[in-house]
Write a structure and sequence with these properties.
Layout: H1 2-30, E1 35-51, E2 54-69, H2 87-113, E3 118-127, E4 144-148, E5 151-152, H3 156-163, E6 169-176, E7 179-187, E8 191-192, E9 199-200, E10 203-211, H4 214-240, H5 252-265, H6 269-291, H7 299-316, H8 322-353
Antiparallel strand pairs: 1-2, 3-10, 4-5, 4-6, 6-7, 8-9
Length: 354
């Protein structure tokens, strides 16, 4: 079955990348930009068809794809070229790839939750002996944590994480029965409750269960996608802060391998497929966020340089040659390819030596 899961992983990863390019494609078409080619996959074409001004191609390597727009990185006299469009149109086209990834992640999660009959929610199941926070005006057994200091709570780990950030008081929003309870500046400090000398908040946390109505499915679809987004930002923060080494990053090979491993660990094919799809949704959200970072060669870098260019042109009253922006993106692409080769090497070493 490992081969089947590898093939599924390759297919899923290919769809994620192709959907990104499809977002650019449909938005460029809607904005009147000339698209010379839209390809699914990379490498030599196994099928292609010219329809109007656009060549549609299916290529043999099922990872990736591209949307080749006229005048994307150079000056062009064609009024329908990308570089000749209004800044808002170019920004819209550049954002569309990430938006499509995010939308795909959202739809995948919703598809998974369609068959759900219930959802787990983080609830307070009890208190340690002597805990001072249990009272009619404070916390009560059965309370569901909704937010802490404005941060949405999705699971019990979130409760511990946001309480551990410190402070003597917290703004808590709880679900108690059918109503929301707000505890403003609620004082909570860790205390010693046993002989170990270790400090605890004195709360026992667990999972409650709520029925999966259609409305709850929509809510939990959004909540899970937002949770994925927060995981990506935390991971990015750990990477910048040095808590995660660059060698721990995973590229296409590592991601496909992890999908295959996820499938192998499942008890049934149905469970494996569901786990792989949930992982795919996480990766889709990851791609959406990472592509909007202001790094040259990424969509976010293009947007950033476009805004800088607009400011410079507004001050100087002169139009800048797009080739200079192309040089910056080329340099960024070289560095990005170097990082990809490094990550690919680490992925292969990790697979071979485990």
């Amino acid at each position: 079955m490992i081969v089947v899961y590898i093939l599924i992983g390759i297919l899923v990863f290919g769809i994620l990348i192709a959907s990104h390019e499809f977002g650019h494609f449909i938005t460029a078409k809607a904005c009147g930009v000339r698209v010379d080619e839209f390809a699914v996959g990379m490498g030599p074409a196994i099928w292609k068809k010219q329809k109007g001004e656009t060549l549609y191609a299916l290529r043999c390597i099922p990872i990736g794809g591209y949307c080749a727009m006229a005048g994307e990185d150079s000056a062009s006299e064609d009024p329908r070229a990308f570089t000749n469009q209004a800044p808002w149109k170019r920004i819209l086209i550049l954002c569309a790839g990430a938006a499509m990834n995010f939308l795909l992640g959202l739809l995948v999660v919703f598809f998974i939750y369609l068959s759900a009959w219930g959802f787990y929610v983080p609830v307070l199941t009890g208190f340690m002996e002597g805990c001072p926070y249990a009272s009619p005006e404070g916390l009560q057994t059965g309370d569901q944590f909704w937010s802490i200091d404005g941060h949405r709570i999705y699971d019990t780990d979130d409760v511990g994480y946001y309480l551990s950030l410190g402070g003597d008081s917290y703004d808590l929003v709880l679900i108690r029965g059918e109503r929301k309870v707000v505890l403003k500046d609620f004082t909570m400090t860790p205390q010693v409750y046993d002989e170990s000398g270790k400090e605890y908040f004195g709360l026992y946390l667990g999972n409650g269960l709520e029925r999966a109505t259609f409305g709850k499915k929509l809510q939990h679809t959004w909540d899970t996608t937002m949770q994925f987004s927060r995981m990506v930002w935390r991971g990015l923060g750990d990477l910048i802060g040095g808590n995660v080494a660059v060698k721990e990053l995973a590229g296409p090979v590592g991601i496909v391998d992890y999908m295959a491993e996820t499938g192998e660990q499942a008890e049934s094919f149905g469970e494996a497929l569901e786990n792989i799809l949930l992982l795919a949704a996480l990766i889709a959200v990851n791609l959406a966020i990472m592509n909007l970072l202001p790094i040259p060669a990424l969509d976010g870098g293009r947007i950033f340089l476009l805004l800088v260019t607009c400011v410079i042109e507004a001050i100087t009253k002169k139009k800048l040659d797009p080739k200079y922006e192309g040089y910056i993106h080329l340099a960024g692409m070289v560095l990005l390819l170097g990082l990809m080769v490094f990550v690919l090497y680490n992925d292969i070493v990790r697979i071979v030596t485990r």
